[in-house]
Design a protein that fits this description.
heterodimer; A: 343 residues; alpha+beta; seven-stranded antiparallel sheet; four-stranded antiparallel sheet; 33% helix; B: 257 residues; mainly alpha; 71% helix; globular
C-alpha cells in the first residue's frame, strides 16, 4: 500500500505509514472534506480592512490546539491583540507604539532606523521649540512619521488609491485617539505652554512659559490667572480700565495679611521675601486680610506706570480666588537666550 | 479443476468495479476541477475537488486543489486552516506545505511562511507550485530573487497554467509590469485559453494599454462568447470617454480579476 503523502510502500493492511505516520485508512476516518468558507459579510469587511494573520482560534474553534471550544465573539472580546491584528496587520500591536517598531519586527532594519531616528529628532526639536510655530510643525511631522511607519507595515500593497487613503485616515484617527490624545492630555498637566503676547516686564512679547497644573498655587509661585476686564476708580473722578490675562507672583495665601507701604511689601507685619515681578509699581496698599481659598497677587507686570487706581479698587483687583489660577509657571522655555526659571 | 469453479469471468449481470457510478465520478470530478481552474472558475473547481474527496479522501491532489482554490478566491485564513488540516493527514506532502506558506504570505505573515516554504522545497519531488510560492515570498519581502524562483517554476513544468499563475501572483501585489511578460508567455504556449486572454486584458488595462486591452478582451470573447466579465469590461473600455466608466475603473479592484 503506497502512502499518499510520501509514496512509501507499506505492508498491506497497515494503518499508518511506516515513514511519515500518515493514516492509511482515510476511507474509514470521519473527516470533513468541505473546507470552511468566509461569509459574504466577512469578505466585504476584509475588502475594507486588511485581514492579516487572524488567529485560527478566533475563527475556527475546532482548530484550537488546546481543544477548547470558544465562541468567535468571546474570543475577539477577550483577545484584543488578535483583534488588532485583524485590523492593523500581521505584526503585534505593541510594535506600532514605537515608530519603526513594526519595521524592526518585520526585519526591515534600515526602514525601522529611519523612522525611529527621524521621529526622535523631530520630537526633540519640537520640544526644544515648544510653544512656537516651528515647534508645533516638528511635532506634527513626528506624528506623520509615526503614522507612516504604521501604514507602511500594515498593508503596503492591497487595494486601490482610494482604499489606501481611507485606511491611512483610519490609522491616523486610531493613532491619535489611542496614543497621542491621552499622551497630550497627560502632558498638558506639566507641559502646557503660555505665550506672552504683549510686553509684561520682566517678561517680553513672544516669551514661551511652561505651565503645570499639578498642585494648588503657593506663596512665591509665579502663576497665570485672569482678571475680569472692567473699569476701576482712580480716586480723582476718573476711571482706569484694567483686566485680562495676567502673569505675576503670589504674595499671600488665605489666612495671611499683606500690606504695601512706600513700595515695601509686608507679610503679616514683616517685610516679605516674595516680591511682585515688577516691584514698586504698587506703592501703597492698605492691609488685606486674605480670606481662605483666596490669594493676593499684584498684577504689576502689565501695568504701564505706577497705577493711579484707588486703594479700595486695588483690593478688588489683587484678591483672587485660588481656583481661578490657570496654572503655575515653572520655566521660561523661549527664547533660548532667556531659558531658565521665571524671574 | 474444481478450484477454478468460483472464478467469475464474464458472468452476465455481474458488476465490475470500474462500472460502479462512484468510481466513474471520481476521475471526472478531478478532471472537471482542472477544467474549471483553467477557465478561472475557482468556485466550481473548489466544488469539484470537494466532490472528488467525498468519494476518495486519500486524493491528496484534491486536498491541495481545495487549498489553492481558497487562496485564489481570496479566503486566506480559511486556506491556511485547511492546508494545516490537510498537513495533519499528509504530513510530508510538500505542495501542501507550500499552499500553507502561500496562505500565510498572503495574510502578511511571511516570516512564518518562509520556513514552510523551505520545508516544501526540501521535501520529496520538485514541483512548479513550490517554486512559485517561494517566489511569492521573495516578492513579498521585496527581494529580487523572485524572478529566479518564478523562472525555475516555469522550467520545472511546461504547463501554460504555471506562467499564468505567476502573473496572477504579480497582479495580487500590483506589479503589473512584471505580470505582463508572464501572461504573454502563457499565451504563447496556449493561444486558445480565454482565461489567459482575460488576465492579459486586465493587466493591460491596469498599465494603461487600453487599445491592447480591448483587443485581448475581444480575443477572450471569441473563444468564450458567454464570458460575462469580459463583455462588461469591453463595454466599459469602449465607453471609456464617458465619466461613469472612469469612475468605475477607479473603484474596481484588480484582485477580482
Amino acid at each position: 500500500m503506497q502512502c499518499a503523502s510520501c509514496q512509501f510502500e507499506n505492508m498491506p493492511g497497515a494503518s499508518f505509514c511506516g515513514r511519515c505516520g500518515t493514516t492509511m485508512v482515510l476511507a474509514e476516518a470521519e473527516i470533513d472534506v468541505h473546507p470552511p468558507r468566509a461569509g459574504r459579510f466577512t469578505k466585504r469587511a476584509r475588502r475594507m480592512v486588511p485581514v492579516r494573520a487572524i488567529s485560527s482560534r478566533v475563527l475556527h474553534p475546532a482548530a484550537s490546539a488546546a481543544g477548547r471550544v470558544s465562541n468567535v465573539a468571546q474570543d475577539m472580546a477577550r483577545s484584543f491583540p488578535a483583534l488588532s491584528r485583524q485590523f492593523l496587520g500581521s505584526v503585534p500591536f505593541w510594535t506600532y507604539v514605537m515608530p519603526g517598531g513594526a519595521q524592526f519586527y518585520l526585519g526591515h532594519k534600515t526602514a525601522g532606523r529611519g523612522f525611529l531616528w527621524s521621529y526622535i529628532g523631530l520630537v526633540f526639536f519640537g520640544l526644544v521649540l515648544y510653544g512656537t510655530f516651528w515647534g508645533a510643525t516638528c511635532l506634527g511631522l513626528a506624528f506623520s512619521v509615526h503614522l507612516a511607519s504604521i501604514t507602511m507595515a500594515a498593508d503596503p500593497f492591497a487595494g486601490g488609491i482610494i482604499l489606501r487613503l481611507g485606511r491611512s485616515a483610519l490609522y491616523g484617527l486610531l493613532l491619535f485617539v489611542m496614543l497621542y490624545l491621552p499622551a497630550g492630555i497627560g502632558a498638558s498637566y506639566i507641559l502646557d505652554a503660555a505665550v506672552v503676547n504683549a510686553e509684561a516686564y520682566p517678561l517680553q512679547a513672544g516669551d514661551v512659559l511652561l505651565v503645570h497644573h499639578l498642585r494648588a498655587p503657593r506663596r512665591g509661585d509665579v502663576v497665570r490667572y485672569n482678571i475680569p476686564y472692567r473699569q476701576y476708580a482712580t480716586g480723582q473722578h476718573a476711571y482706569y480700565y484694567f483686566g485680562g490675562p495676567q502673569i505675576d507672583r503670589v504674595l499671600a495665601v488665605g489666612g495671611e495679611t499683606l500690606e504695601v507701604r512706600n513700595g515695601i511689601v509686608y507679610l503679616n507685619g514683616k517685610p516679605s521675601d516674595e516680591l511682585p515681578l515688577r516691584n514698586k509699581r504698587v506703592m501703597q496698599l492698605s492691609p488685606i486680610h486674605v480670606p481662605p481659598g483666596s490669594l493676593v497677587i499684584l498684577p504689576t507686570a502689565t501695568l504701564q506706570a505706577p497705577t493711579p487706581i484707588a486703594d479700595q479698587a486695588w483690593r478688588d483687583v489683587c484678591v483672587v480666588a485660588a481656583d481661578s489660577v490657570d496654572g503655575i509657571i515653572y520655566w521660561r522655555h523661549q527664547p533660548l537666550s532667556r531659558w531658565g526659571p521665571p524671574p | 479443476m474444481s478450484r477454478f469453479h468460483r472464478l467469475e469471468f464474464d458472468v452476465p449481470g455481474a458488476k465490475r468495479p470500474a462500472e460502479t457510478p462512484e468510481a466513474l465520478l471520481q476521475p471526472d470530478a478531478l478532471h472537471d476541477a482542472d477544467t474549471h481552474r483553467r477557465a478561472g472558475r475557482f468556485e466550481d473547481a473548489l466544488r469539484c475537488y470537494s466532490r472528488a474527496l467525498e468519494f476518495d479522501r486519500s486524493l491528496v491532489v484534491a486536498w491541495l486543489g481545495q487549498c489553492q482554490m481558497l487562496i485564489q478566491l481570496g479566503e486566506y485564513p480559511e486556506a491556511e486552516l485547511w492546508s494545516r488540516k490537510a498537513l495533519e493527514i499528509f504530513r510530508e506532502y510538500g505542495d501542501l506545505m507550500a499552499s500553507r506558506a502561500q496562505a500565510l504570505c498572503r495574510m502578511g505573515v511571511w516570516h512564518e511562511a518562509q520556513p514552510l516554504s523551505d520545508a516544501s522545497l526540501a521535501a520529496r519531488e520538485e514541483t512548479a507550485y513550490r517554486w512559485m510560492v517561494r517566489g511569492e515570498i521573495m516578492l513579498r519581502r521585496n527581494e529580487s530573487t523572485d524572478v529566479a524562483c518564478f523562472d525555475k517554476a516555469q522550467g520545472v513544468e511546461a504547463d501554460w497554467l504555471v506562467p499564468l499563475e505567476v502573473a496572477r501572483v504579480y497582479v495580487h501585489y500590483r506589479q503589473f509590469a512584471k505580470a505582463l511578460p508572464r501572461v504573454r508567455f502563457a499565451l504563447q504556449k496556449a493561444t486558445d485559453q480565454p482565461w489567459a486572454w482575460f488576465t492579459q486584458a486586465a493587466i493591460e488595462e491596469e498599465l494603461g494599454l487600453l487599445g491592447d486591452a480591448e483587443k485581448s478582451y475581444s480575443r477572450c470573447l471569441e473563444l468564450a462568447p458567454k464570458h460575462h466579465d469580459a463583455r462588461l469590461r469591453l463595454i466599459e473600455l469602449q465607453s471609456r470617454n464617458k465619466l461613469l466608466a472612469r469612475v468605475k475603473r477607479m473603484f474596481r479592484r484588480s484582485g477580482n480579476r
